[in-house]
């Protein structure tokens, strides 16, 4: 099974399937998805913008523009600065969903490999969106 360049849409399955994945590229530019708003940096930015709106120093429209710029900037920065390659193999695909051009995969018994380094994890959720160079 081949996924789009990193990151989900409305097909759903609960079948358990054997699975092997290998990403050729770990991070690619991800259009302007809001994936990184849940990070520490993203939540801190949102909280700060909310305070500025509450005190009347910033409009909702401008705050939304700042968040959209954040989405694009964080993706562009990761695309430029992260050159890591990673491969992984899962014993089972527990669940998958494709909705709005976004894949969500739930994997069981996953082994990550980075050269000689190996990390084994019980369960992994992968969210993959089609990358873009725009």
Note poorly predicted spans. 1-32
Number of helices: 2
Number of structurally distinct domains: 2
The N- to C-terminal Cα distance equals: 26 Å
Quantity of strands, as a count: 5
Q: Which CATH architecture of the largest domain would you pick?
A: Roll
Reading off the top of the CATH hierarchy, the class of the largest domain is best stated as Mainly Beta
Q: Helical residue percent?
A: 25-40%
Please state the CA-atom Rg, rounded to the nearest Å. Answer: 18 Å
CATH topology category name of the largest domain:
TATA box binding Protein, subunit D, domain 2
Could you outline the blueprint of secondary structure elements for this entry?
Layout: E1 9-13, E2 17-22, H1 40-54, H2 60-81, E3 87-99, E4 102-114, E5 117-129
Antiparallel strand pairs: 1-3, 2-3, 3-4, 4-5
Helix pairs in contact: 1-2
